[in-house]
Amino acid sequence: MADPVAKTPIYPVRDNQTVTLSITIGESQAGGTDVTFQGAELKTGEVTDLPIGPGQAIRKKILYCLTTVQRKNPASGKTSVKYALKGGVQDVDLTYDDATLSEIDERVVYDVAVKFV
Amino acid sequence: MRIFSLPSLVICGIALAPAPLAAQTSDAGPAFNRPRTPVSPAFVLLGVAPTEVERPNTPADLAFSILNHSAALTSLPRDVAMELSPYWLMKHPTLTWEQDTVRSVGASLARTLSISFGTAEVGTSSRPVTGLALGFRAAPFSGHVPDSATKRLRALGNRLGIESAVIARLRQRRLDDLEQIFNREFEQAHTDSARQAASDRFSAARQALTRTVMTDSPEYKAAVDSTNTLFKDLALSREGFVLEVAAGAALDAPGAVVDSASLARWGAWLTAGYVGTSLSFVVVNRFLSSSVDSTFDSIDLGMRLIYTTGRYALSTEASFRSFTQQGAPGNEYRIAALADFEIQNGLWLTGAFGRDYATGTAGSLIAQFGLSVNVAGERVKIPLR
């Protein structure tokens, strides 16, 4: 199993605007995510337009996303996970592609903690 | 990297002489597979079976390989075996597996195109000859991922999410401590670089914590083993209509002198078929030509029909070969029927009956029955990749 990839991006939020999260697993690989916030599990599996909360309620807090990617693409071992955040000061797509998997069915865990400011 | 040159007999079998073809064993599988679209046409035309093939993953890897093998582009590369897929050299962060279940002709061509390149010494010690070959393979039609597989891939995604949840739960207490430290450092940082440094330390600490959970936790390992057991036979195999084309050419350069290089062999392959859940058929066509000795330039046409269900597999194959030059041997054909029956788990009764290419030679009657053990993998290979 490949070494986990850990990132801590910072996302500025706005009062009275709800932040949402979508996660895309690219390179035609399989994968699933566990999203936790304030110790509570928000979603497991596919994540699309998941509401996190209004800016003033989530500022200074951290959203944890653990995504396990498994190689199923026989043509490529590249992996990529895109975290799309909307509702903050600006919408952003955070894409991480640090790991390449040499074997079919090999896994890598992307550990992304979004710090809201 | 090492490259083994196949014996000349094999090279002739692929490209030139009829003798080895006529003398082949009465094994229906290999006889049918010979004219099929090769994965790497360049290596087939060069007559080598490289034990290591370089497959660069990025444009930078490719550039490094080229410079490394050609002495900074000052000489012909030696003993190279390289295969690359231009599409997969680039990043595709938004290409999900769902989007790849069905492909347009353009998308199929792009995603299946592979280019193979090889060089090898094909002469003798007294007359050294460097062989260079270039080939490509692509599938304008590559079928689709069946509904049953897409449902299982979605289920796999959910399971991988659950594995992530196991990690999250197992590391929660220690993570709370790390978060407190990070929040304190972040609040005390007054510059962007200081905040970035705090974030980097938090990332490194989480990475170490996650790694520890993944390697030391029996609970996490049990979750992974459970997923692996449930989905061990799940692959992105495709069904439906498939059309593959391939072509390549090989040059011989005596003494590794570029000016002396001349076309030695070329070939083209076409494979078309349909892969279904239980019924599959495939038609293959191959043309091989040699400028060194064109006597045995040939066209091969083959067909195989396979029906698999539960413990049975029935198939029939026919192959036809025509030599295109005057004075060459007459046309040849081979036809065979095969049956497999699983007597008990992993133990198969097999039978084959038919005729080989040259009916006048010993062993040309195909009549085989026997038992074989097959405890892993597919007993009957789907004929198309």
β content of chain B, as a range? 25-35%
Q: State the end-to-end distance of chain A.
A: 34 Å
Oligomeric state, counting identical vs distinct chains: heterodimer
What summary fits the major beta sheet of chain A? Answer: 6 strands, mixed
What does the average pLDDT of chain A come to?
A: 96
Structural descriptors:
heterodimer; A: 117 residues; mainly beta; 4-stranded antiparallel β-sheet; 1 helix; 10 strands; B: alpha+beta; 11-stranded antiparallel β-sheet; two-stranded antiparallel ribbon
Structure description:
The complex is a heterodimer of chains A (117) and B (385). Chain A has 117 residues and is mainly β. Chain A has one domain (5-116). Chain A is built from 1 helix and 10 strands; from the N terminus they run ββββββαββββ. In chain A, strands 1, 2, 4, 5, 7 and 10 form a 6-stranded mixed sheet that branches. Chain B is α+β, with helices and mostly antiparallel strands. Helix content of chain B is 33%, strand content 34%. Chain B is built from 10 helices and 13 strands. In chain B, the strands form 2 sheets. In chain B, strands 3-4-5-6-7-8-9-10-11-12-13 form an 11-stranded antiparallel sheet. In chain B, strands 1-2 form a two-stranded antiparallel sheet. In chain B, strand 6 (239-254) and strand 7 form a beta hairpin. In chain B, helix 8 (147-188) crosses helix 9 and helix 8 (147-188) runs antiparallel to helix 10 (218-230). The radius of gyration of chain B is 27 Å and the shape is extended.
